[in-house]
Amino acid sequence: MNTFLLLFLCFALGILVARFARTPPGIAQGLNWWILNVALPALVLDLIPRLHFDRQLWFLVVSMWFVFLGAWAVCAAFGRWFKWSRARIGALTLVAGLGNTAFTGYPLVEALRGKEGLALAVVADQLGCFLALAVGGITVAAWYSGGRTHPAAIARRILLFPPFLTLLVGVLAGFLGGWPAPLENVYERVGATLTPLALFSVGLQFTLQLSRAQFGAVAFALAWKLVAAPLLVFLAGLAVGIHGTVLAVAVLQSGMAPMISSAILADQHGLDPRVANATLGVGILVSLATVPLLNLLV
């Protein structure tokens, strides 16, 4: 409950500040820089060394990539049909393909599936969704932002993306036994700034004053992220013999609201930030109802 209250209050505060206060120019962009280049890498360095790798959990990882690649496919296909700009296709791919599997995913899965479910939720988040962000997300952002799209240029962006670099460092640290306690404390405290600052930044840029075409794009992205993707993961799991808590967590994590960092990545690359932030804000609110409904399915 405290996590949800924090999400709501920081998001609402951002909306109120944007409406009634005089903020410094570029405040949202400054916050976004800190989130992607400092807070998120610190969180990765805190969590990754604690993971226990188990090949039996492959479906959790594959399901997160399925959601991302499926979003890319449907957004690209329907984007041509609806005559969306490249920026909008890229933005919708990011927010429809990457889920908030940590900050709303962890507390929701724990509430619905207990401690066993929470441990599996961390695997889906760190080895699945985060890798999709670090590799797939930056690829989509580079591809649709109008910059250089040569494979070597995209690979360079991935390798120089701070969260990806810290992912590699975190894996190495885990194999070597983890961090000293003082460093763990630093990473945990710096990483803890991600959620409040990210929701505040999203609130600063949030608007529901959208055109019909923009509203339709938001609805399309959320229909995939909150409904179609988790249902397809459920059917795929049954088809390959996955059951029990692993299937349940894969479905729940697939149906989480859009990832906060995905909207920030879209904003930093000029990918229709208005639609991306609206999808994120509405998605967080709607997912509080749709995720418990998905739990009834599994």
Rg from alpha-carbon coordinates: 18 Å
Based on DSSP secondary structure assignment, what is the total number of beta strands? Answer: 0
Strand portion: under 5%
Distance between the termini: 23 Å
In one word, what is the shape? globular
**Whole-number tally of structural domains:** 1
Instruction: Enumerate the spans where pLDDT stays under 50 for 5 or more consecutive residues.
Output: none
Give the count of helical stretches: 13
Tell me the series of helices and strands, N- to C-terminal.
Answer: HHHHHHHHHHHHH
Give a quick account of the main beta sheet: strands, pairing sense, barrel closure. Answer: none
Share of helical residues = over 70%
Q: Quick gist of this model?
A:
This protein is mainly alpha-helical. Helix content is 80%, strand content 0%.
Structure description:
The structure is a single chain. This protein is mainly alpha-helical. It has one domain (2-9, 52-161, 195-202, 211-297). The radius of gyration is 18 Å and the shape is globular. Helix 10 (212-239) packs parallel to helix 13. The longest helix has 40 residues, at 105-144. The chain has helices spanning 2-20, 27-47, 58-82, 86-97, 105-144, 151-160, 162-175, 181-191, 194-205, 212-239, 244-254, 260-268, 273-297. It has 13 helices and no strands.
List the defining traits of the structure above.
about 300 residues, mainly alpha, about 80% helix
Present the secondary structure layout:
Blueprint: H1 2-20, H2 27-47, H3 58-82, H4 86-97, H5 105-144, H6 151-160, H7 162-175, H8 181-191, H9 194-205, H10 212-239, H11 244-254, H12 260-268, H13 273-297
